[in-house]
Amino acid sequence: MLYEPVIGLEVHAELLTRSKMFCSCAVIEGGMGVEPNTHVCPVCLALPGALPVINEQAIAYTILTGLALNCEIGPFNLFARKNYFYPDLPKGYQISQYEYPLCRNGWLEIETAAGAKRIGITRVHQEEDTGKLAHVGELSLIDYNRAGVPLMEIVSEPDMRSVDEVRAYAEKLRHILRYLGVNSGDMEKGVIRFEANVSIRPAGDEKLYTRTEIKNLNSFRALTQAVDYEIARQTAVVQAGGAVEQETLGWDEARAQTYLQRSKESAHDYRYFPEPDLPPLEISPEQVRAIRAQLPELPDAKRDRFMREYGLSHYQAMLLTEERAIADYFEACASKWKTSSEKCKAVANWITGELFRLMKEEAEVEVEDKVKVEVKVEDKIKPEHLVELVILVETGVINLNTARLVFEAMYATGRPPRSIVEEKGLAQISDTQALRRIVEQVLADNPKEAADYAAGKEAVLKWLMGQVMKATRGKANPQMAQEILLAALQKRAGQI
After folding, report:
1. Strand arrangement, sheet containing 93-97
2. Which sign, positive or negative, has the C-alpha torsion 283, 288, 290, 294?
3. Whole-angstrom Cα distance, residue 411 to residue 96?
4. Which of 202, 263, 207 has the alpha carbon at shortest distance from 234?
5. Which residues of 75-87 are buried (b: 16+ CB within 10 A; e: fewer)?
6. Which residues contact 210 (CB under 8 A, 6 or more apart)?
7. Which of 2, 13, 275, 412 makes a 20 to 30 Å CA pair with 310?
């Protein structure tokens, strides 16, 4: 019998607010880089008498995300206590949302091999993050710096049917969160984490069967490997005549397999009840309209507009809109040339080619040296400098080969291209008489190759052209030089 997987994702994303969800303690992204338990207070440590206060910015960020995911915004919202007894939250419960989430009934469209597919969003709600546990021998150490950080949970419908769809959904969601500016997407810091709900069923069946939940997957690689493994494991269990049990699983990256953490709790196990220390939260239509006005142009819409307005290919537009900062940089360069798709394509080629190459090389050096610094493209090459470089090539001042050298110097120094060209004497040789003298000298120095061309070996032309470029240190105008070289060769052939 054939089985198909049924997969839903719960995504937890820390919000980029300055303070925690219910107190004024500073948020340290991922809780990393500072001494343990230094960003805490009576509220996030649950000391007697301390009372929570809702972070307004966190609520706005969650509503903004809900709007980007085509959700309905609930006018009446209620925080609840989710009771569980683990030491990573000192209260013995988590303040979350249950019956009345901020956002519900949305969707996100992904690209699949069969075309576009809509994945339902059940809810987007707000809660607080937990502390971090470190296990050292027989001891468990707790750092509460992350406890109480605003955590947004995005719960999908079980609409995914393959590992590829899971990855496409996760990547698309992370992409949108970064565009909105509500989450950095830095998985190394654990600020976005995935939990996959996986079940299988006979192909063609519409019934939902017993599922397992794989917790705390903090990379796309871990997510796809864990889901793939769990599908195979459940299939093997069912084919052997067994039954899948509802369980909470962890993922062992080293052994590449899931492992049992505990029997899966149901909602009633958490004993949800309204948080008595927080009043109901009412969201007015005016507040929703004000937040909707803050929505940026989202990646898909920006990609389509780049294709339409700048004449870019789907692939180019997709690369340029992968990061909002890169998309903004491209527009700063190309907006003046909307009527000239060729110039816009030239800018796009420089960004997706040489710029991406240099940024990748710099990032690899930083990783190797254990120092990670986010490269800001505008600090490397100003938009007006890239525009100037395109103009220098277009007007024949420099050729493409020289432009690549100039581009590297621009990236390293931040200087404008014209000053680099002038300082290094890189201006293209476009003087006809000067090029003719150089061509004649090359042919005089290589009589055999000139004779070979005259004898019909046209392939030697490329080699001779290389000698011309070498003689001019790459500064010859290639088109002019080739025309002069061809004319000289044909003249010699006619004299033989």
Report:
1. 93-97, 79-83, 273-274
2. positive
3. 47
4. 202
5. eebbbbbbeeeee
6. 199, 243, 244, 245, 246
7. 412
Instruction: Report the amino acid identity of residue 116.
Output: A
Question: 319 near 303, Cβ under 8 Å?
Answer: no
pLDDT, one tens digit per residue, over 370-418 is 444 456 788 889 999 999 999 999 888 888 888 999 999 999 999 999 9
Segments in 209-298 forming alpha helices (H): 220-239, 285-292
pTM of the entire predicted model: 0.85
**Residue 153 β-bridge partners:** 12, 125
- CB-based contact 130:147 (threshold 8 Å): yes
69-109 confidence digits (pLDDT tens): 999 999 999 999 999 888 888 999 999 999 999 999 999 99
444's tokens:
């005089």
Two tokens, residue 215: 């917790």
**328-374, pLDDT tens digit by residue?**
999 999 987 766 788 899 999 999 999 999 998 887 765 444 444 45
Compute the distance between CA of residue 458 and CA of residue 166 in angstroms, rounded to an integer: 54
Q: What is the pLDDT of residue 178?
A: 96
CA distances in angstroms from 322 to 55, 172, 174, 209, listed in the order given: 30, 10, 11, 37
